[in-house]
Amino acid sequence: MLKTSLLFFITAIAEIVGCFLPWLWLKKGGSVLLLIPAACSLALFVWLLTLHPAASGRVYAAYGGVYVMTALLWLRWIDGVRLTSYDWLGAAVACSGMLIIVAGWSK
User: What residue ranges do the domains of the chain occupy?
Assistant: First the structure.
């Protein structure tokens, strides 16, 4: 369970970076060259999703829970926005859903 959660977290970072870099280019006047590492990050994201032993739909569903938590941590650490108790509660619910789905993978 820990290995799967960590892999999902790394996967979420790859996806967020792959989307954040084009956002920097489009919204903040960053260099178009940001699209190169963005594409690499998104390719890494896709490859990381293939490393899970479950059917793709289950992987995507479980991954969504970790993505929610990771996106909120990004919001706090990168964007500097203070998280509310609702943010933390939502992240806990989403991660709980991931844990329930992953627990059923071996069944």
Answer: 2-103
